Amino acid sequence: MALVALASAKGSPGVTTAGLVLGALWPRPVLLAECDPAGSDVAIRMTAPGGQPLNSDRGLISLAAAGRKGLGDDVILAHSQQLDGGLDVMIGVRSAEQIGGMGGLWAPLGISFNQMHSADVLADCGRIGPASPQLPVVQAARLVVMVCTATGSSVAHLRERLASLVHHVDAQLGVIVVADPKRRDGVKQVWSVLDAMSMPIQHRWHLAYDPVGAAFFDGRGHGRLDRTPLIRSATDIAAEMAAVAARPTQRDFDMAQAAFPQSESGYGPATDEWRDGR
Length: 278
Ligand SMILES: Nc1ncnc2c1ncn2[C@@H]1O[C@H](COP(=O)(O)OP(=O)(O)OP(=O)(O)O)[C@@H](O)[C@H]1O
Ligand SMILES: [Mg+2]
Fold this sequence. Notes:
Helix content is 39%, strand content 17%. The protein has 278 residues and is α/β, with parallel strands linked by helices. It has one domain (3-247): Rossmann fold. The chain has an 8-stranded mixed sheet, sandwiched between helices. The protein starts with a strand and ends with a helix. Bound molecules: adenosine-5'-triphosphate and magnesium ion.
């Protein structure tokens, strides 16, 4: 299956909220992995089934201690837990001070997430820059989605970050703009700014700015979540993003070719069917 990395350039545009809502609506099995070195928000905002607190000792740091000999699905899932509502999550570090405990695990972790057999992985990578420790997770993703708002400063920082990120990442790129559903003009302006950069941004989505819906992912929700603009806008985004993530890219093909240089025996992925993602 595939790894999708969600990240931001600056500010708090709603990466964690987008990860939670997209994970809840994902059409295939999915693990939401908190890879934000600034510290976990999910452990604070969300609960386990029955309203029980989540176990903040089970997550990235316990995985780092256990996973030095390998990071198969079983090991990854043993350090994950379920949210009330059923979404599987890998809780991130408690605070930035715990980052040292990850050692050199970010790179193998990203590769393992991208190669899980039983689930896609949505990684909340928080704010990302060229020196960010979690950058290898972003680099391993099949699809990298930057989240911003439709404000001038958010777009300016996104532009700078994308311009630098293209030198570090060769995944497909997408952008989610979090904006009032009525502010389509503002969202169009963001697309114009990105068009003017002639950046290879293949996927563009508008997620509703919706404080009532977002409150459910902040531990403060009341009423019916399913009717909120946030859920309505995220339903289509989750379906489209999952479809993009399901299609192997030329990069996957090249990596597989490197791993299986000869496919004369018929073994290996070098078939048209595989290449086209059919
Ligand atoms: N789509 C949305 N509509 C309305 N409010 C939102 C939305 N997304 C996030 N928020 C609110 O904005 C605040 C920050 O959201 P969130 O934690 O998801 O951002 P973030 O980008 O992950 O921030 P950080 O970089 O600090 O981790 C929260 O109070 C959240 O409820
Ligand atoms: Mg966050």
